[in-house]
Sequence to fold (64 residues):
Amino acid sequence: MFVCLCHGITDKQIARAVREEGVGNMRDLRKQFGVGSQCGKCVQLAQQVIDNTIVDESLFKEVC
Ligand code: FES
Fold:
């Protein structure tokens, strides 16, 4: 699903950046993809994707 239409960035790209490239907040994400740097409508959803990915990662680590 597209999160940032201005830059064509999907939730999968954001989740991968969080998991593999150390993105942990909107500032990192903006630097990496430009998310939120134009109209700004994607900021809330992008933040949710970051948070959910971090929660999923920590749950995964607890189980393993
Ligand atoms: S939709 Fe992301 S900056 Fe416009």
Notes: Residues 24 and 55 are 11 Å apart (CA to CA).
